[in-house]
From TrEMBL:
All copies of domain Metallo-beta-lactamase, residue ranges: 513-672
Keyword Hydrolase: no
Recorded GO CC terms: plasma membrane
Example GO biological process: establishment of competence for transformation
Pfam families associated with the record: Competence, DUF4131, Lactamase_B
InterPro entries: ComA-like_MBL (IPR035681), ComEC_N (IPR004477), Competence_ComEC/Rec2 (IPR004797), Competence_DNA_uptake (IPR052159), DUF4131 (IPR025405), Metallo-B-lactamas (IPR001279), RibonucZ/Hydroxyglut_hydro (IPR036866)
Keyword match Transcription regulation: no
Lineage, uppermost ranks: Bacteria, Pseudomonadati, Pseudomonadota, Gammaproteobacteria, Vibrionales
Primary localization class, coarse: membrane
Entry's transmembrane regions: 7-37, 43-63, 224-246, 258-280, 300-319, 325-347, 368-390, 396-418, 456-477
NCBIfam families membership: ComEC_N-term (TIGR00360), ComEC_Rec2 (TIGR00361)
Location(s), subcellular: Cell membrane
Species the sequence originates in: Salinivibrio kushneri
Protein name from the UniProt record: DNA internalization-related competence protein ComEC/Rec2
Length: 766
């Protein structure tokens, strides 16, 4: 009963991220009735499913109501609340989470909540725990949507963020900061000078903002990323340390019944404190709940199997946070625990040869190796699906690094934190130095292991699942129980079909206000424009690089910059340094770039690139100097227009002796759909089937212009824009162009539909 009921309830809640639409809240009445019927008839699968659906529908509807309530407020809204994000001077400008309790001086009712994300660019910076009064403009919590890269909208749901806010004014109301912020302020001077200070901060507070992209590459490619955070593993280590402290303390205490369970109480106290240091992040919640269940069963003299512990923990985590399934850390955390349960089953059911073990010390070593191998197989699908690769050295390096960090580094971190709390700075400095030295061999191994990274296509994750099931079946099941698994594998192999062959492919990436177009063929690519850049990072790092990694493209064949505006060439340096394009072209004079001017023509992978504008290179290319290129091949064509405006369009038309040179199937709408571009003569001459504008939702320039959009639609042209459609892809297949819109065709889930809602005050302006 327990397994069926809890598992079906958990699966029902876990299905929430993939619902195509959100049922109305009155559906909960029906699910409650179904639950009662299932419970009375002991149809545990039905009762569990109904309970899970009730909780999911109720939670999602309340969240949606809060989102609509927040974003419906007028411009220049005054909000008061508490800062929820740790601030470190080392990170500077950053996005903060702000927990609102008053909107326009009116306190929120108890059933309402409001959490907003505010980008804070300049001093004075807020610190966690402080109260501030802000004047902001709300926006829906939408994000860019592409085939790979950070999914901001999932992140917002997982963190229960109800709106984004543009900051206009800020007034600090109180200077009282949280204890975690106080500890961070104390730790920062001690850890900043250390070589592995960012790693120690991650182990101390779960704060990973100091870790650079280079750090993450090394940790990910070596298989050690899970060690540099307060994870479930470290909560378990804290529990073990607390247990030993309790045992030692009990020796000096009188033999009373009160102190019999002291080790257990101390263990839970230390584990809870360490989880609190990480702000009770999702992996720590999972570990803490599991340890609490184990502790309760020990206290009651009961036993709980690893499988029951896993599914009870899963249900309790989801009951506490029904949106946990939106978080990648949830899946990684429970996949690891599931693999450990599989390891427990396999090792405890392993057949014995009946011989007496002459070397009993080998048994724990064999078990440790077995656990690491099972973790490798169990985590393989997620590893391939999320990171598109695997470290060949992950298993051997974890055999060394996990015990070392657990037995040496983490205890030193505990002593360091205790010393800082007691203001024993001289002790803390010595301890932090030791902890830093303890990480030196680990990170040296990580640097060596990073070169063993094996990239793999994301589609291999499906085959990894099949391999995992087969390996488990071969190891732990009898052959007659394996028939069903074998049938499933055979059916998967038979049903597998290679995707339709693609002649060439065009991807207009969702980069907000800016532009990046990827043209690919035969696993090679040319990039037209690189999107915008920020103070730290930019579109090239956040969007383009993850997509190229996803496709296993390590070098660009070509890079074209339409003109010199930062929203088009912001990532040019990063792309050149990271992907070493074989050739580069621009309409302005740049070192290392060939001219992109009218009359230039070249072939690439069977495609023809014909430059139609501008007539000459400029020292600084403006909008009307944008490099306009027609790409054609296999009877299909694309017109890339940059930010050319109406005057430039007229000059371009006048320069052509044969106007058919502009005719194309697809046009990139000039200047993001601005009213200063897309003249009627230009639209008629190009005569496209599709027009796509690269825009950001609710951008301050209100692009694309409604008049421009209407002009294309009145001409019988299908209108698309990245703000509404996300990444837009055309694939040349035998039957013609195959169109894919990421929001509508790949990821049209209920929360994305909700985030596309516009605040009512903006609708009133149209």
């Amino acid at each position: 009963m327990t397994l069926t009921f809890t598992l079906t309830a958990a699966l029902a809640v876990l299905s929430l991220p993939w619902w195509p639409m959100l049922p109305p809240i009155w559906v909960c009445i029906m699910t409650v009735i179904v639950f009662v019927v299932g419970w009375k008839r002991r149809w545990w699968w039905l009762a569990g499913s109904a309970l899970g659906l009730t909780w999911a529908v109720l939670s999602a509807n309340l969240y949606q109501a809060d989102v609509i309530h927040v974003i419906s407020h007028q411009e220049d809204t005054t909000i008061s609340g508490t800062v929820g994000t740790l601030f470190s001077a080392k990170t500077g400008a950053q996005a903060i989470i702000f927990d609102v309790d008053k909107i326009n001086q009116t306190r929120l009712p108890p059933f309402r909540s409001a959490r907003v994300r505010v980008y804070w660019q300049s001093p004075p910076y807020p610190k966690q725990g402080e109260r501030w009064q802000l004047v902001v403009t709300f926006k829906p919590p939408y994000g860019r949507l592409n085939e790979a890269g950070f999914d901001a909208e999932k992140y917002y749901v997982a963190r229960r963020v109800h709106a984004k806010a543009r900051l206009k004014e800020a007034t600090r109301l109180t200077e009282q900061v949280s204890w975690r912020q106080q500890l961070l302020d104390t730790l920062s001077p001690a850890l900043s000078p250390l070589a592995f200070g960012p790693h120690l901060l991650a182990l101390s507070l779960g704060e990973r903002e100091w870790l650079t992209p280079a750090h993450w590459d090394t940790l990910t490619h070596s298989g050690l990323a899970h060690l540099m955070a307060i994870s479930g593993l470290h909560i378990g280590l804290a529990y073990g340390i607390g247990w030993q402290i309790g045992r030692w303390a009990r020796v000096f205490l009188p033999e009373r019944r009160l102190f019999l369970w002291l080790p257990l109480y101390v263990a839970m106290g230390v584990a809870s404190l360490y989880a609190a240091l990480a702000g009770f992040a999702l992996p720590t919640q999972r570990a803490l709940i599991a340890l609490m269940l184990v502790s309760i069963s020990k206290r009651l003299g009961a036993r709980i199997s690893p499988l029951n512990l896993l599914q009870l923990t899963l249900l309790l985590v989801l009951l506490r946070d029904p949106f946990a399934g939106f978080s990648m850390s949830f899946w990684l955390s429970f996949a690891a625990v599931g693999a450990l349960c599989m390891a427990h089953y396999s090792l405890t059911h392993a057949p014995s040869d009946g011989r007496i073990q002459t070397r009993p010390w080998l048994r724990p070593i064999k078990q440790l190796i077995g656990i690491q191998l099972i973790l490798l197989v169990g985590m393989l699908p997620l590893q391939l699906g999320l990171f598109a690769g695997i470290s060949a050295a992950a298993t051997p390096i974890n055999l060394v690094a996990v015990p070392w960090v657990g037995m040496v580094t983490v205890p030193l971190v505990f002593v360091g934190l205790l010393s800082e709390s007691l203001s024993l700075s001289w002790v803390a400095d010595w301890v932090w130095g030791g902890a830093n030295a303890s990480l030196q061999p680990v990170m040296a191994l990580a640097d060596l292991a990073a070169d063993t990274w094996l990239p793999a296509p994301v589609t291999s994750a499906g085959w990894a699942i099949s391999a995992m099931v087969l390996a488990w079946g071969l190891y732990g099941w009898r052959w007659h129980r394996l028939k069903a698994v074998m049938l499933v594998l055979v059916a998967a192999v038979v049903a597998w079909r290679d995707p339709k062959p693609v002649n060439w492919q065009i991807d207009v990436l969702d980069v907000g206000h800016g532009l990046a177009v990827l043209i690919s063929k035969n696993h090679r690519a040319v990039l037209y424009d690189t999107g915008n850049r920020w103070q730290v990072g930019g579109i090239a790092q956040a969007v383009i690089a993850p997509i190229l990694t996803h496709r296993q493209i390590r070098q660009l064949d070509g890079l074209i910059l339409s003109h010199g505006d930062s929203d088009h060439d912001g990532g040019a340096t990063f792309m050149s340094d990271t992907y070493s394009p074989q050739w580069r072209r621009a309409s302005e004079r740049r070192a290392g770039y060939q001219a992109c001017v009218a009359g230039e023509r070249w072939r690439w992978q069977g495609l023809t690139f014909s430059v139609l504008w501008p007539p000459a290179q400029k020292a600084r290319a403006d909008n009307d100097d944008s490099c306009v290129i027609r790409v054609s091949g296999d009877g299909r064509s694309l017109l890339l227009t940059g930010d050319i405006e109406a005057s430039g369009e007229a000059d371009l038309l006048a320069s052509l002796t044969d106007k058919r040179a502009l005719n194309s199937d697809i046009i990139l709408v000039p200047h993001h759909g601005s009213a200063s571009s897309s003249s009627s003569a230009f639209i008629r001459t190009v005569d496209p089937v599709w027009a796509v504008a690269s825009t950001g939702l609710l951008n301050p320039w209100q692009l694309p212009s409604p008049e421009v959009k209407l002009a294309y639609q009145n001409a019988g042209i299908t209108w698309l824009d990245t703000a509404a459609n996300g990444q837009v892809r055309w694939q040349g297949v035998d039957s013609g162009w195959q169109l894919t819109r990421w929001r509508q065709d790949r990821s049209d889930y209920w929360y994305r539909q909700m985030f596309k809602r516009r605040p009512v005050y903006l609708d009133a302006d149209l």
